[in-house]
Amino acid sequence: MAFNIYSKNQNSDYRFFDRVVKEQFSVGGTIVFVHKYLGPGENYNESILEPGYLDGSSETDIGDYLFLQNKNRRYSADVYELWGHYPIQDTSFDLMQFGLALSGSDTTYVTFHYNEMVTRMGRKLMAGDVLEFAHMRDFDLLDPDSAAINRFYVVQDGDRPAEGFSPTWRPHIWRVRGTPLTDSPEFKGIIDKIDQTVSGPGLGPAGTDQTYGDILSVRDKELFVMDQILEQATSEVPLYQMDQHHLWIDINEEGKIVLYDERKVGTISGDGAPPNLNQDDVSSGSLFPSTPSNKDFFLRIDYDPPRLFQYDSVTGAWRYHETDFRRAWSPAGELHTDLVNNGATFVAADKETYKSRLGLTEVLKAREDLGKDIDEDN
């Protein structure tokens, strides 16, 4: 009679190897907390629950069929504890590309015991699940008001690795590929949970509660850096166009620039000031003076943008000279400049004075969209 290690069923040989593999994970592995992905929030509707759906949606459903994405993800309130193993690797940066980027070290491959995983979670780990590594807890953050945080990874895919097969030709290990979790809307159900270790007076910023999202997010830092860039740009280049008034421009008898004789009278950039003079030396207003002298300059500030004219006593006309294009710098196109540079204020119904110009982050507050119907009054 021939002896075969392979069997059509999971026999005692398979169970023996499976117990050995499980013991290896419990002895040499580390605890990994799993936040189980339940499904997209767009399909949540209690009135049309279907068999096989969990709270109106399942892990296999798609929230946005147009873009084929699940931007509003729902996660279980229960946290599952599994023994996992993964190779520790150094963080290295790739300086050959544009900017500073991680060279593959931000991707982690974690293996779990297959049967233990299915027994505890009810299914295999899949894309969308979030892994929390407690042994990677960082206690020494640079912000003294921030508490220690764990390391989070998002599962991208999973499969049976070759090293997980025993002589019975059956798998015992499930390997997943994870990437670092970011502060994005998909994971608001996890990172916005209150971290009780930093809540309370004197622990969070200004005595307020602090969430994982507050600690992990770089949004406030990026906005701060952007504001500093805009302030620096405004300081170094306060006005549009070039400033050439430190140069002397030769004007001939006909009033034309000698170097560029084919061009009309005017400075090169158009700053609303006559050649070799500054705007402070030119009269301005919304009406021309009543008794001008020949070749007098006048800046009409009621034009938008202001225009510079020169009086011709022979014809009695104010000749258009140039337009003042050197307006205050702003990070917008010409059509949006007036809107962006709006420095006016207004009094609202509550009798309070507000600025007309507000950042979008102050006007439009972010909120979750879980697919529920919104009251018409709201």
| Number of strand elements | 14
Strand content: 15-25%
N-to-C order of helices and strands? HEEEEEHEEEHHHEEEEHEEH
Please tell me what the overall shape is. Answer: elongated
Structural class, from secondary structure content?
alpha+beta
Mean pLDDT: 77
Task: Describe the protein.
A hairpin with a 6-residue loop joins strand 3 and strand 4. With 378 residues, this protein is an alpha+beta fold. Helix content is 16%, strand content 23%. Strands 1-2-5-8-7-6 form a six-stranded antiparallel barrel. A four-stranded mixed β-sheet has the order 9-10-11-12, with no helix packed on it. Strands 3-4 form a two-stranded antiparallel ribbon.
Which helices and strands occur, and which strands form pairs?
Elements lengths: L11 H17 L1 E11 L32 E13 L7 E2 L6 E2 L5 E6 H8 L8 E9 L10 E11 L13 E8 L7 H4 L20 H5 L2 H18 L46 E3 L11 E4 L6 E6 L4 E7 L13 H4 L4 E3 L5 E3 L4 H4 L15
Parallel strand pairs: 9-10
Antiparallel strand pairs: 1-2, 1-6, 2-5, 3-4, 5-8, 6-7, 7-8, 10-11, 11-12, 13-14
Q: Which descriptors would you attach to this protein?
A:
single chain, 378 residues, alpha+beta, 7 helices, 14 strands, 16% helix, 23% strand, disordered C terminus
In summary, what is this structure?
This protein is α+β, with helices and mostly antiparallel strands.
